[in-house]
Design goal:
twelve-stranded mixed β-sheet, alpha+beta, Carbonic Anhydrase II, about 270 residues, globular
Length: about 270
């Protein structure tokens, strides 16, 4: 509660609003239930876990019986991606296009929700893009090093049974023009609310070279359900230092620590 009050005070100074969680699941029925819009009477329920303090990642499983996988799972995310030479065995086809989008101020991050018309294709399976979430610093690491930000693109198979997340690191470099469009909508969106619709092309964020780490993992937040196919790109986004700092004034340290591999294999395609 103290952290929430401090955060809200900071946001009032920068004319930004803050923070519900995302809780998709590997089970189709549970995922659909968690994807329902956040109602006002559910707000207190959404705050039962956090990224720091007594309700932080080390205690997620103790906060709610539905979060037991956060402790007991053997294929949890994120992980440390130790560099290895790309094999080039399986291509990932990214077919993103411009469409309608809204930004929801979830209480844990800003979530870009998209009309499900963009998709990726991997190993004979299509996945439709549903939303993008932003973490800072990054949740995944590269050989023990976290990046300033991580953009996670959530996808689901057409039948709703499989989930895949494409992930891009962001580093300090050239300014990203698309980020200003996103931030203009995000910064004026109150807590637990969504912005008006705007046109957005997620393909602007995707690098031309598709080399990526691929492994089987989980959601990185409660309920931490497993069965998620992760694709973490080698080539990062670039944002200006000012753009990164702007986001961090509202959401910072909204990342889960890396989890043990427990014998899982990671392939650099």
């Amino acid at each position: 509660m103290v952290r929430w009050v401090v955060l809200m005070s900071l946001l009032s100074l920068v004319s930004c609003s803050s923070r519900p969680p995302v809780a998709e699941q590997s089970s189709a029925d549970l995922e659909k239930k968690e994807e329902a819009p956040v109602s006002e009477d559910k707000q207190s329920e959404m705050w039962e876990w956090a990224y720091e303090g007594e309700k932080g990642p080390n205690n997620w499983a103790n906060l709610n019986a539905q979060y037991a996988m956060c402790r007991d799972g053997r294929s949890q995310s994120p992980v440390d991606l130790v560099w290895q030479k790309p094999t080039g065995k399986k291509p990932l086809t990214v077919s993103y296009r411009e469409g309608d989008a809204v930004i929801t101020n979830t209480g844990y991050t800003y979530r870009i929700e998209l009309t499900p018309q963009s998709q990726i294709h991997f190993d004979g399976q299509d996945y439709l893009l549903e939303k993008i979430e932003i973490r800072t610093p990054s949740e995944h690491q590269l050989s023990g090093h976290a990046m300033p930000m991580e953009f996670q693109f959530y996808h689901r198979s057409p039948n709703g049974l499989k989930q895949a997340i494409l992930s891009l690191f962001a580093v300090s470099g050239k300014e990203g023009p698309w980020f200003d469009q996103v931030w203009q909508a995000a910064s004026s969106t109150p807590l637990y609310k969504s912005s008006p619709k705007f046109r957005f092309d997620p393909g602007q964020l995707i690098p031309p070279k598709h080399t990526f780490y691929q492994y089987q993992g989980s959601l990185t937040h409660p309920p931490c359900l497993e069965g998620v196919n992760w694709f973490v790109f080698n080539t990062p986004l670039q944002l200006s230092t000012a753009q990164i700092k702007t986001f961090r004034m509202t959401y910072n340290n909204n990342n889960r620590p890396v989890q043990p591999l427990n014998g899982r294999s990671i392939t650099n395609h």
